[in-house]
Design brief:
The structure holds two protein chains of two kinds. Chain A has seven helices and eleven strands. By secondary structure, chain A is an alpha+beta fold. The longest helix of chain A has 10 residues. The model of chain A has no long low-confidence stretch (mean pLDDT 97). The radius of gyration of chain B is 28 Å and the shape is globular. Helix content of chain B is 30%, strand content 17%. Chain B has 29 helices and 34 strands. The chains are: A alpha+beta, B alpha/beta. Chains A and B meet through helix 1, strand 2, strand 3, helix 4 and strand 7 of A and helix 1, strand 1, strand 4, helix 3 and helix 4 of B.
């Protein structure tokens, strides 16, 4: 068996945001709208204590690719639109998804509507490309700031022949490089990259080397070794979903 | 469960209601959608360039698909970033594909200028734009006043020589004014007047045992961001990390010690640390030397006989002790700086124990304020006391990058009599005036004073400026005291702005020329250093520009030189085509694109032409250089300056600065006054010998503390691509990666205790005011900020620039507030720097 998983070394992580931005570039995710963040990788920030004994930590978050994924439980299609792949990835099939959002409802790491952000602990690993709101509206807007002199969103997309203009193109059996409206979307561990022999975009982009990816069912993998070496934790273990994203060490040495 | 009508059948089928619907289509669905698509990566190519999002100037590669830039990584050849970049490089995708980019030249049709006055821009052809500019330039030549043209430089590549040196100098103007003193010249001041280098330092993180970060957050900004991000996790295991900053920054949050200094009192804190190091005998004797008999005589408050001490690599330790250090015990330093005495002692002892592998990482926070020059010296003096200067695990200088230099001798042959005479006129920034020594590199008026250009313009002193050409800059937004700049620029008769966006500065321009973005479309090169390697890295047009844009630094001078030639002034054209011939073929450029390529080849040739072994990477010819995009030097060798090779007057590391004494006396002599008078004119309080040693100056606070009771701290967001990322939605989406910040808000961090006093809750809209101006933003109550101080990152508050950056461009309505409106106009006069730090801006906060 294969169970892909990710370890995030919080001592190495500096909370810089490169992973989440690289994810947006790789996966062409939409800008936040309508209560949906479309951030497959995001961050939660935790401040504790009082001045001058203040502690601050950043926790990178993403889909936990749980072994017992709550999101898939009530997926109403047959076969399910959300399912576990042979590699242990929790996958959304764009074709089968009917946009009912029961996954978003059931996933302990998701919210139907995100009004704030990681500064207040809010995030959602599953986002929904809303009905009747064309994706990447930023590049569909025809307004010119200075008529005749500056460009517009739609002009830029038209000239570059892509929406968004920096669209990274790829094919995958289960998902599109840009998801259409009325489907849910989330981290795929960049399966299109894995199948091409590359690491997930966030792992490759992390400048601190905090993200380690591999098969946790394989004893000699780097992830297995790291889990053996360090104490680890997962988010909301009490929900019983058996997450496959693990955190090791502390963000702050004085924590 | 919410289900779209058209998908209803999929779900009802799954729920077992199949029978009601046509069986054949059912069965097809039952098997799921047939999978025909395979996982496939589309073609593309990684192409080399340079990120100019901050001054790290990272070598990068950009993945290009169908002629579009789609993703970014570090250049794998780089020995500084090892193929990894910080968030800025990724964000740049939204900069090159910004919907609000200028696509054609434009001119203003409303002669009235001012903030909020619609310039009524209309599109014009390149020909009309260049003809108009050339006519204005010729008018200045014809009336014998070429000095009245000012060239204002912003961010640059090293192709700057062409637009910044050759253009104005051959034309006849002394007014090529850089942006340098906005950044951190006061920081360089402290290093020059101790160590003898007017430079930023490199830092040897791999070997450090104590990392003392002072007034910056090196994993977020400063000059080696990815290299530091890569190493901090390991440094935390191997060394102690202590951070001096009034707010809890990222490095402080991760580190062992946070010293939340009272803004502007860094000099006292540094002297307090020095006092502990000396009284407890913890200084590094291998660098500083020792008492001849080995007996420590540094006792608090007691003068020491200089003759008893034998110095090694340093000069003037005992003089410094007698003048300044002896009177700053930890207790007094604590009182002045707000950092507890126990912490000062603990940090000092840690430094002493780790010496000489001590890395004192100084940033602009402790130096860029009205009295910051001496804080900067005091902080850098700690690098001397601990022996970390130019040493393993310490702060380093850099290997050289053997590119060709501007051929000044050849350039001179194209300067006519008018040009030779008028380029010697005084400059519009008034550098070198009695009250503005700007003693960069020891010379009165040797450095720039960018923010004082506003005064020069307003007061027509030394004379009127009739025409400005500015590029990759936005001085009216980026300098503290924005109101002064708005007034000054409104009165300039003719302004040209070369830019990617219609920024605030463009609103005062008569002609705006659309330019390439530096990372994706421009051809040029930069020089940078980190992690012991110096690097030359190319900016390359990895994608074809999709609008009608030019390279600012090379194509503009070339194109304008053609127009000037048409009008009878051919010197500039002749200079450019002769100075920058193709080094391989010897051909002269026939157009602006060819010219740009030849100029780049001219500068970088020693790295790839194989004529001489210059060390570092071996590059086989021009095509190889373009493909790799960069050159790494050999690693910097430690202790290059030890053994009496420091470039100071004494050739030693100076605790008593003979170098500064010479510079100040030189400036005083020029104005027929004494050094005390220079100190007085430059906002400093000390008189006599104290002017030559690192010492504590009571911070200058602008405003009455009764009316404006909070000290304001400005800092740089890790998402700031300098001032150029604020029209990118990703900037706002992830703004919360700056500690204490909130996405989509411009958050002023206020300690909850202060919030309570003010009756302000978290998330409240607030107005923040100083004697300089007033802005609106959001209150964020956060324990990571020192009570009595408030902090907000620079960047937001654009009233122009784009639809995302401002709430309403047409109404000049800003999103958030510009820190530079809040921070009153002021300078650090000894270096000419902008004074934006140290809490010199006092503010009041009101709930809206």
């Amino acid at each position: 068996m294969t169970q892909y998983s990710m370890i995030i070394d919080l001592q190495k992580c500096v909370g810089c945001g490169a992973c989440a931005l690289a994810c947006k570039a790789e996966n062409n995710t939409e800008l936040r709208n309508n209560g949906q963040t479309h951030n497959w990788a995001d961050f939660v920030h935790i401040t504790t204590g009082t001045f001058p004994n203040t502690k601050y930590q950043t926790l990178p978050v993403l889909c936990n690719h749980c072994s017992d994924p709550a999101c898939a439980k009530n997926c109403p299609t047959e076969p399910k639109a959300i399912f576990k792949t042979a590699d242990g990835i929790t996958m959304v099939n764009n074709e089968r998804c009917v946009g009912c959002r029961s996954c978003q409802d059931d996933c302990p790491y998701s919210m139907e509507e995100v009004l704030k952000d990681g500064a207040y602990g809010e995030y959602s690993v599953i986002s929904y490309n809303s009905d009747n709101i064309p994706v990447h509206g930023f590049y569909r807007d025809g307004k010119e700031l200075i008529p005749g002199c500056t460009s517009s969103g739609i002009d830029t997309a038209r000239v570059l022949r892509a929406t968004p203009p920096h669209r990274t193109k790829y094919d995958h059996p289960d998902y599109e490089d840009v998801r259409e409206e009325s489907v849910v979307e989330k981290c795929t561990f960049c399966d299109h990259r894995l199948k091409n022999g590359e690491l997930p975009a966030c792992v490759e982009a992390c400048p601190s080397g905090a993200r380690v990816f591999g098969d946790i069912d394989h004893k000699n993998s780097e992830v297995s070794k790291l889990l053996e070496k360090h104490k680890s934790f997962v988010l909301m273990p009490e929900k019983g979903t058996k997450p496959n994203v693990f955190y090791v060490r502390d963000y702050s040495v004085t924590a | 469960m919410k289900v779209r009508r058209r998908d209803f059948f999929k779900v009802t089928f799954a729920a077992g209601a199949a029978a009601a619907i046509n069986g054949t289509s059912m069965n097809a669905l039952a098997a799921g959608t047939p999978i025909t698509k395979k996982s496939r990566a589309f073609g593309g190519e990684w192409m080399a360039s340079t990120c100019q999002g901050c001054t790290t100037w990272c070598p990068v590669e950009i993945f290009v698909q169908d002629g579009r830039a789609v993703k970014v990584r570090g250049n794998p050849y780089s020995k500084q970033n090892d193929g990894k970049v910080c968030p800025r490089a990724h964000m740049a995708l939204q900069q090159v594909y910004d919907p609000d980019r200028l696509k054609v030249p434009m001119k203003r049709t409303n002669p009235l200028k001012g903030r909020g006055v619609d310039p009524k821009f209309i599109p014009i052809s390149w020909d009309e734009a260049l003809n108009t500019i050339a006519d204005e330039m010729m008018a200045l030549r014809d009336s014998g006043e070429p000095e009245k043209l000012a060239l204002l430089r912003g961010r640059y590549s090293y192709m700057r020589d062409v637009i910044y040196d050759v253009l104005p100098k051959v034309f006849g103007s002394p007014n090529n004014i850089s942006h340098s003193s906005m950044c951190a010249e006061a920081e360089k001041f402290g290093v020059f007047y101790t160590e003898g280098k007017w430079e930023y330092r490199d830092y040897d993180l791999d070997n450090t045992k104590y990392l003392l970060v002072w007034g910056c957050d090196p994993v977020s900004s400063n000059r080696m961001v990815p290299a530091t991000i890569q190493r901090l996790g390991d440094v935390l295991d191997k060394a102690t990390v202590a951070v001096v900053d009034p707010k809890l920054n990222n490095t402080a949050a991760k580190g062992h010690e946070w010293l939340p200094v009272l803004p502007g009192t860094d000099g006292a804190l540094a002297l307090g640390v020095a006092h502990v190091l000396l009284t407890e005998g913890l200084w590094y004797k291998g660098f500083v030397g020792d008492f001849k008999d080995g007996k420590n005589r540094f006792v608090s408050g007691v003068k020491v006989d200089e003759s008893l001490f034998d110095e090694k690599e340093s000069y003037g330790l005992v003089k410094w002790w007698n003048l300044a250090v002896k009177d700053m015990p930890a207790g007094k330093a604590a009182e002045l700086s707000g950092v507890p005495a126990e912490q000062i002692e603990r940090v000092a002892r840690g430094l002493g124990k780790a010496a000489p592998n001590v890395c004192v990482w100084m940033g602009p926070g402790c130096s860029m304020h009205p009295r910051g020059a001496y804080s900067s010296m005091a902080v850098h003096a700690l690098a001397g006391l601990t022996g970390g200067v130019d040493n393993v695990g310490g702060s380093l200088q850099s290997s050289s990058i053997p590119v060709n230099k501007l051929d000044k001798k050849l350039m001179k042959t194209f300067q006519d009599e008018v040009a030779l005479k008028h380029t010697k006129f005084k400059k519009i920034d008034q550098r070198g005036y009695l009250n503005l020594p700007a003693i960069s590199k020891g010379k009165s008026g040797g450095g720039v004073s960018t923010n004082n250009v506003a005064n020069g313009l307003l007061n027509k002193d030394p004379y009127e400026i009739k025409m400005i050409i500015g590029y990759m800059n936005n001085p009216v937004f980026a300098n503290n005291g924005t109101e002064r700049w708005e007034k000054a620029l409104s009165a300039v008769p003719f302004t040209v702005h070369l830019s990617t966006h219609a920024s605030e500065f463009s609103q005062f321009a008569d002609i705006v020329l659309p330019c390439t973005t530096s990372m994706f479309e421009k051809l040029g090169y930069t020089k940078t250093k980190a992690n012991r390697y110096a690097t030359c890295t190319l900016l390359q047009p990895v994608v074809e520009p999709y609008w009608d844009v030019i390279d600012d630094e090379t194509e503009f001078p070339f194109l304008i030189s053609e127009k000037l030639k048409d009008r009878g002034f051919s010197n500039l054209y002749n200079a450019l085509t002769t100075m920058y011939k193709d080094p391989e073929s010897g051909r002269k450029a026939k157009n602006s694109k060819e010219f740009t390529e030849y100029a780049l080849k001219y500068y970088t040739a020693p790295l790839w032409d194989g004529k001489k072994d210059v060390g570092g990477d071996k590059i086989n010819g021009w095509q190889d250089m373009l493909k790799r995009g960069m050159w790494n030097s050999d690693p910097y060798q430690y202790k290059k300056q030890w053994g009496g090779k420091f470039k100071t007057v004494s050739h030693k590391f100076e605790f008593y600065s003979k170098t500064l004494k010479k510079a100040l006396e030189g400036h005083a002599e020029k104005h027929h006054v004494d050094v005390d008078r220079v100190m007085e004119e430059s906002n400093y309080t000390v008189r006599g010998e104290m002017a030559f040693v690192p010492h504590f100056e009571p911070p200058l606070r602008s405003g009455d503390m009764k009316e404006f009771p909070y000290m304001f701290i400005d800092y740089k967001s890790r998402l700031n691509r300098e001032g150029r990322s604020q029209n990118s939605p990703w900037y706002y989406e992830f703004k919360h990666v700056d500690p204490g910040d909130v996405g989509w808000h411009d958050a002023l961090k206020i300690n909850p205790a202060d919030g309570k006093t003010l009756g302000i809750d978290d998330g409240d809209p607030i107005r923040v005011s100083s004697i300089g101006g007033s802005v609106e933003c959001t209150a964020r109550l956060w324990e990571g900020i020192r009570p009595g101080t408030v902090a907000k990152s620079f960047g937001q508050g654009h009233w122009a620039y784009g639809k995302t950056a401002s709430i309403d461009y047409n109404k000049a309505q800003a999103r958030g507030g510009n820190n530079n409106t809040l921070i009153p106009w002021e300078l650090e006069r000894l270096s000419g720097s902008n004074a934006r730090n140290g809490g010199h801006a006092l503010v009041k906060i009101e709930k809206i």
